[in-house]
Amino acid sequence: MPAFAGMSGGDRAFEGEQQMAKKQKKATKPAKKSAKKVVKAAATKSKKVVKLAPKKAVAAKHNGNGLPRPSGKPFGQAGKALDGVRILDFTHVQSGPTCTQLLAYMGADVIKVERPGVGDITRGQLRDVPNADSLYFTMLNANKRSITIDSKHPKGREILDRLIKHCDVLVENFAPGALDRMGLTWEHIHKLNPRMIVASVKGFGPGPYEDCKVYENVAQCAGGAASTTGFREGPPLVTGAQIGDSGTGLHLALGITAALYQRIRTGRGQKVLCAMQDGVLNLARVKLRDQQRLAHGPLKEYSQFGEGVPFGKATPRAGNDSGGGQPGWILKCKGWEDDPDAYIYFITQAPVWGAICDLIGKSEWKTDPDYATPNARLPRLRHIFGTIEQWTMTMSKFEVMDKCNAVDIPVGPILSMKEIAEEQSLRATGTVVEVDHPTRGKYLTVGNPIKLSDSPCDVQRSPLLGEHTEEILGKVLGYSTSEITEIKGSGAITPQDKGSRAEAA
Length: 505
Ligand code: CAO
Hints:
Bound molecules: oxidized coenzyme A
Oligomer: single chain
Mean pLDDT: 89
Structural class: alpha/beta
């Protein structure tokens, strides 16, 4: 029976483990029997031999929970966390690809389906090297394989159905309804493969906006991040961190791994939905906390309070206030006039208030009732940070970092992307990785930010468009060479016309 007609990969990996455990358990049975014989025969000669039997029984009990014995291999050499999990990756742009790249980093076999001749639209967006896949694409599609399939072509649909039978998870972030329009409804997928997990990113969950297309900044605005970011006097601001796209992809990856785990018990797949609005709100939850605190009085941790500016009805923008239990602000450092990143985030953490006072030459603040306690300081935050800034401006951000960390004061240098790209400690941990690519040459990407001690991440370059089409048709789906030739001739895996290519580029 071909592989795609059977059980799906993730379960195979887990059930393989269980069978191994059973085998180990079985293996102990004959040993137990022969041990009993030896014990019987020897009993007449010596009582000491009899005592060996219970010891074997105890050793067998360790396997009794159906799980394999702990691997004897050194950590990092027992495969990857998601080995055996097969992902049918229908994602594009940023949110979905973030999710599947993380799963690929953890060992899943990610098969990215792309439109023939066009591919993921980001291949051609923000291009820096002519005719080469953009950094936008290459930094979001590492460790994946690419197959081109026209999902609206009858033969393409047939190939997709085979892939659905073969895989454990289908991940997609099309516009609402697009997957259904391809004929890939939940009912269709679930009938073909009841174990399939169907994971989707959408802009909004069910409700008035569920049919809307959504990009990053739409989600930042609709999720409450933009209204609470920026300075009070200015307009709402979006943040450079892609909390709508990459943040939601991250949420989706967690949902998928949980669904894979649940499937071990239930034997069936399920739908996993992450709406970008929900993902952003989850990351902006402290601002919903403050919204509710407002009903009980002003937000004293916001410098607006000390400045005597009344609060409105909604959580305001608070500039660089931490707004939390430990007040903070961004302060200038030496060279700020010319260097836009010569700043440091300074936190006046209460337990080290004495050290702060000593360091900045304000030892008298330690006992002054206007400054000695966190509550006394709240109405004076602007003045306090202004005073600290006089001190930070005399040094570089790294000198401030050294002096503060020496006495446990939490501070954060404002690092530019240039500094991050050059930071050797990030290279050493594999968080920033240099990858070689056949058409664009060497480039930097972000490796797996989640470090697993028994599942190291080895970052592989992103695939070229359709690089693995024949390999997947033949080796994964079992099509013969003549069938592949026939498929090629059908137009299901090759570009149909030049018009669509030009449009996507
Ligand atoms: N073969 C044939 N057709 C294919 C195909 C393939 N392999 N892959 C995609 N298509 C088709 C889809 O079927 C769809 O066609 P229909 O509209 O006729 O059904 C079409 O390509 C376009 O898909 P789309 O609507 O998803 O793409 P878009 O560029 O118009 O919209 C986006 C992009 C991101 C706004 C939309 O996909 C979306 O809202 N996604 C959900 C939210 C999301 O993830 N947003 C984050 C994007 S990252 O910033």
